[in-house]
């Protein structure tokens, strides 16, 4: 009897917490199709129709469509860059002996503890300096307000985490495969890209997932490095929030929020098992 | 693998690009944080003066800095206790009681962890909105106007509002982590102690907690750092440190000094303090929670 009661209480508690998480998100989705007047009624009143003008407003007038494209490009390019430099580095750290290996490993380990938020200011000042040094050649500047540069900074600052996870995985693969390939006369590069990389796919997927979320969701770095018109989606949403405080234009803001939330929710729904397994395997992220 | 001729070139080719990027965008900026904290510099002028530890002594008399420090510590303590406590409790009952629909609950509770902080700030601004927000609007609809608070505009309330948002964001992440750690505990241990008549509470303290202690310890150590960061990004997006500095945290104050006030040297001194502080707290936590590992 007490056991049943306990179970009932558990369900009630867990459901309450799940609702506390789900309701605000669902509420935003619903509110994004309300008309201006409907925002001033009860917050629980359902909208009478689908006021999709909010979305047109957000996509076009508030340029969220353009920012969306910027975010996709910056994120994709960042992912390509980080894999291109981290996979080979992780592989040689896992498999080869070389001078200074201990130092490299210690530095990368220490890098896990350096959060980007601490070092954005010096990175920004460094890029400003580079722009100033090149002012005669490139009067418009090259490094600040350059989405490609943002990708590069994303990639560079996630190198320690990426190499850490990949190295651990490479080490767990038996050496027999490489030795067999070497006997067949495969080059080192070929062994790395054709034998080891396919076998490391689970680890690669994990780092791609975590880095995707980190790049897509970042706003501190992109706010700093892209002060001009070419913004990322998160910074665009931040601007909508600021504008809403002044003008009480809820519709555009809520539509903007949905535009930012939905892609991540779709990705999450597709890969959640992987994400949660990867989290358990990779331990704690910073 | 034994070394063969030509290995050196291959290793260098593989390693150099990553190391160059890492050095340029992580090591060098980190060194610069420490170096610049010893100078006064307004940013874009070439006038950069070495002042030794002056920036640090100035910090001690800076009331706004002290307040930001207090706010950070308060958030750390409150959010850690609530998040970890609730996360452990939820993970334990969900694992032990084998709830139906566990995967669905897990799916929902993990959602905030994939949302960006800007989105979370926007969601909570909508919840806290003074006129038409979810809380105040509901209270008005229920004719309970007296209970309405200015969630983000009242100096006494704002820090709690930020803390709630932080717990909302991180609870699911820690719950999922503890769940995966708890699910690896063999069922026989619980069966044996049930035969001895141990209650569920006893089992939690005698079996579950000791066996996931290493996970708990790691999360606690890292939580300090991530909470310092989360408080900053959330405050930056949601309150801007206001009203009147009442929700300012260490990192947001550093940014304010660096960008708004153009006191880069002073801002970096704050950065050094945060760095030292979170490192020390992590170290202390890690020391204080050290136990002999329990095997099963």
UniProtKB/TrEMBL annotation, chain A:
Bilayer topology term: Multi-pass membrane protein
Subcellular location: Cell membrane
Keywords: Cell membrane, Membrane, Transmembrane, Transmembrane helix, Transport
Domain ABC transmembrane type-1: 68-271
CDD domains reported in the protein's UniProt record: TM_PBP2 (cd06261)
Protein's UniProt keywords contain Transferase: no
Tagged with keyword DNA repair: no
Name this polypeptide is given: Sugar ABC transporter permease
Organism: Actinoplanes couchii
Protein family according to the UniProt entry: Belongs to the binding-protein-dependent transport system permease family.
Gene3D superfamilies the record matches: MetI-like
Pfam families per record: BPD_transp_1
Transmembrane segments annotated in the record for this chain: 12-33, 67-94, 106-128, 148-170, 191-216, 253-271
TrEMBL record, chain B:
Boundaries of every ABC transmembrane type-1 domain copy: 69-285
Keywords: Cell membrane, Membrane, Transmembrane, Transmembrane helix, Transport
InterPro entries, alphabetized: ABC_transporter_permease, MetI-like, MetI-like_sf
CDD domains: TM_PBP2 (cd06261)
Domain of life: Bacteria
Residue ranges crossing the lipid bilayer per the database entry: 12-31, 73-95, 107-128, 157-176, 220-239, 264-285
Record's keyword annotation contains NADP: no
Membrane topology, as annotated: Multi-pass membrane protein
Compartments (UniProt record): Cell membrane
Annotated family: Belongs to the binding-protein-dependent transport system permease family.
Protein name: ABC transporter permease protein YurN
Provenance organism: Actinoplanes couchii
Lineage: Bacteria, Bacillati, Actinomycetota, Actinomycetes, Micromonosporales
């Amino acid at each position: 009897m007490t056991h049943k009661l306990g179970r009932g209480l558990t369900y009630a508690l867990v459901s309450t917490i799940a609702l506390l998480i789900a309701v605000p998100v669902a509420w935003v989705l619903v509110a994004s199709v309300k008309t201006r007047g409907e925002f001033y009624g009860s917050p629980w009143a359902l909208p009478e129709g689908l006021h999709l003008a909010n979305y047109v407003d957000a996509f076009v007038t508030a340029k969220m469509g353009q920012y969306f494209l910027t975010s996709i490009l910056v994120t994709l390019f960042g992912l390509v860059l980080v894999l291109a430099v981290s996979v080979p580095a992780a592989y040689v750290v896992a498999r080869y002996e070389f001078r200074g290996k201990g130092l490299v490993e210690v530095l990368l380990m220490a890098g896990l503890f350096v959060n980007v938020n601490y070092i954005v200011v010096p990175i920004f000042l460094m890029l400003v300096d580079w722009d100033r040094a090149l002012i005669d050649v490139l009067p418009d500047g090259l490094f600040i307000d350059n989405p490609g540069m943002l990708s590069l900074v994303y990639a560079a600052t996630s190198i320690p985490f990426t190499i850490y996870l990949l190295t651990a995985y490479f080490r767990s693969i038996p050496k027999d495969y490489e030795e067999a390939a070497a006997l067949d006369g495969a080059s080192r590069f070929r062994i790395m890209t054709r034998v080891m990389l396919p076998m490391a796919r689970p680890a690669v997927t994990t780092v791609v997932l975590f880095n995707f979320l980190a790049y897509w969701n970042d706003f501190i770095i992109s706010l700093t490095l892209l002060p001009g018109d070419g913004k990322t989606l998160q910074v665009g949403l931040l601007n909508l929030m600021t504008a809403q405080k002044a003008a009480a234009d809820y519709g555009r803001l809520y539509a903007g929020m949905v535009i930012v939330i939905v892609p991540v929710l779709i990705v999450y729904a597709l890969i959640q098992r992987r994400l949660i397994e990867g989290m358990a395997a990779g331990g704690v992220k910073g | 693998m034994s070394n063969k001729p030509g290995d050196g070139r291959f290793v260098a080719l593989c390693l150099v690009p990553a190391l160059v990027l890492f050095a340029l965008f992580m090591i060098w900026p980190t060194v610069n944080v420490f170096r610049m904290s010893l100078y006064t510099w307004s940013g874009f002028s070439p006038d950069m003066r070495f002042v030794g530890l002056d920036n640090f002594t100035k910090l001690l008399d800076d009331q706004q800095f002290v307040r930001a420090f207090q706010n950070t510590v308060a958030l750390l303590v409150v959010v850690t206790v609530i998040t970890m406590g609730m996360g452990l409790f939820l993970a334990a009952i969900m694992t032990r009681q084998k709830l139906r629909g566990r995967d669905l609950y897990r799916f929902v509770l993990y959602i905030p962890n994939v949302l960006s902080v800007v989105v979370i700030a926007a969601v909570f601004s909508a919840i806290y909105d003074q006129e038409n927000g979810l809380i105040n609007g509901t209270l008005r609809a229920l004719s309970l106007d007296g209970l309405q608070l200015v969630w983000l505009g009242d100096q006494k309330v704002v820090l709690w509002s930020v803390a709630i948002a932080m717990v909302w964001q991180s609870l699911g992440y820690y719950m999922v982590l503890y769940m995966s750690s708890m699910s690896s505990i063999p069922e026989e241990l619980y069966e044996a102690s049930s035969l001895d008549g141990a209650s569920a509470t006893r089992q939690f303290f005698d079996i579950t907690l000791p066996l996931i202690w290493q996970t708990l310890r790691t999360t606690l150590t890292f939580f300090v750092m991530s909470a310092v960061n989360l408080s900053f990004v959330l405050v930056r997006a949601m309150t801007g440190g206001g009203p009147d500095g009442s929700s300012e945290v260490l990192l947001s104050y550093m940014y304010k000094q660096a960008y708004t006030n153009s006191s880069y040297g002073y801002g970096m001194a704050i950065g050094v303090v945060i760095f030292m502080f979170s490192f020390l707290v992590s170290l202390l936590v890690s020391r204080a929670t050290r136990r002999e590992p329990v095997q099963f």
